[in-house]
Amino acid sequence: MAKMKIKKGDLVQVISGRKQDKGGDRGKQGKVIEVFPETNRVLVEGINRITKHTRAGQAGGQTRAGGIVVTEAPVHVSNVAVVDPETKKPTRVRTRVEMVERDGRQKAQRIRVAVRSGKDI
């Protein structure tokens, strides 16, 4: 399984799916809330919102109110792309390795770079 190039906190844009004018999310941007590497999915705020009907009940000694809850559902990682910090358009991510001196020793540090502009992410 390949390493996921999208991390928690990244600004991403939906690049596939239904168009916005048809009620979809393609073209929308949002921050990554959570990453699920075992299923190759990401949870993006404001994207793929679903409605859940919850039943009122008692969970752990507390009364839980029932009703309709709107929440985000995970999206497959191939359907989103990281947004370039300079152009604000979707881009691919590449890594650059730099040697950094720490505690008197040379250490390799990986830096994520936007392919479109070459800026650090």
What would you note in describing this structure?
With 121 residues, the chain is mainly β. The protein folds into two domains: 73 residues; 31 residues, no CATH class. The protein has no helices and twelve strands. The protein is flat and about 60 Å long.
Topology:
Elements: E1 11-14, E2 29-36, E3 41-44, E4 49-54, E5 57-59, E6 62-64, E7 67-72, E8 75-76, E9 80-83, E10 90-91, E11 93-102, E12 105-114
Antiparallel strand pairs: 1-2, 1-9, 2-3, 3-8, 4-7, 5-6, 9-10, 11-12
**What does the largest sheet look like?**
6 strands, antiparallel
The secondary structure category is: mainly beta
Assembly state of the chains shown: single chain
* Overall average pLDDT: 91
Number of strands: 12
- What percentage of amino acids are in beta strands? over 45%
Low-confidence stretches: none
List the secondary-structure elements in sequence, H or E. EEEEEEEEEEEE
Global shape: flat
- The strand line-up of the biggest sheet is 8-3-2-1-9-10
Q: Helix coverage percent of residues?
A: under 10%
Distance from N terminus to C terminus (CA atoms, Å) equals 23 Å
**CA-based gyration radius:** 19 Å
Q: What is the number of independent domains?
A: 2
The number of helical segments is 0
Features:
121 residues; mainly beta; 6-stranded antiparallel β-sheet; 0% helix; flat
Summarize the structure.
By secondary structure, the chain is mostly beta strands. Helices cover 0% and strands 51% of the residues.
